[in-house]
Amino acid sequence: MSVEASSGGLLAPGGAEAPRAAPSRAGTLFRAGRWRLAVGRIAPVALPLLLFSLVAGAWEAMAVALHSPLVPHLPEIGRELARIFKGGHFFGEMTVTLLRVASGFAIAFVVAVGAGIAMGRQKAVAHFLEPAIIVGLTVPGLVWALLCVIWFGIGLTGAAVAVALSIAPALLLNILQGVRGVDAELLEVAAMLRLPLRKRLACLWLPSLMPALLGGARLGLSLAWKVVVLVELFGLSSGIGYQLNSEFGAQNVAGVIAWTLGFAAVMGVIEYGVLARLEHHLMRWRRTAQV
Hints:
- This protein is mainly α.
- It has a single domain (74-277), classed as MetI-like fold.
- Helix content is 78%, strand content 1%.
- It has helices at residues 25-66, 74-85, 89-121, 123-138, 141-152, 156-180, 184-192, 197-235, 240-249, 253-282; strands spanning 5-6, 9-10.
- Strands 1-2 form a two-stranded antiparallel ribbon.
- Helix 3 (89-121) crosses helix 6 (156-180) and helix 9 packs antiparallel against helix 10 (253-282).
- It is flat and about 75 Å long.
């Protein structure tokens, strides 16, 4: 008895189509895995774009509904963005702000690392500096901005000191927690083997503190942007904060939003394009859960 082949599949005797074999479980799992992999690659880009689209749509709907100069339409904001980016004006002001942030952050980071390790290793130092940390965490950045403008005048020094005073307590507390989280057994082994200080720093302290250092850096930078804009608002004649104040004085709401969006875009590039990649590179040795 013969079995005839057709374009629809195998035919059983009498012309009836034979039942198809059920797809194997392995094939189903393979296709599901490919689908999850594709979604995992697209989601980091698609989801933020979806969020921005929803926010932009909601803003435009609000602008249409209110008909108020205080809520400008998206085309007006777009024209202001084109104006501030034309001729490199935005990048010149942004460079000034970045220089102030970098100076203050460098001061705070060096002080916080040294003081954090000292506090984690010596209880006397911890008791001595804890009140200063509490005071620093409770004083608003606005106060430091005003005081530093009064004390140091308008210049790089005042902005850098204001940023350093504002972010150093949070950085110090984050690094202190990292120091206290270092495995005590590893410290005891290093002491028993009498490893030199250089070896301890490179092979023990630095890898153990890397999560705290990176987390503290991201936290400190997020606070530094806010403080430096306040300093520029109150006492400086350049930078993003100064431009925001100028647009506010001219009652140009679209200009204020345009400078804010440009500033936020640069912060996003630094956060995701620099810090996130640096963290992924430095922490690639850590094992992550697969479930």
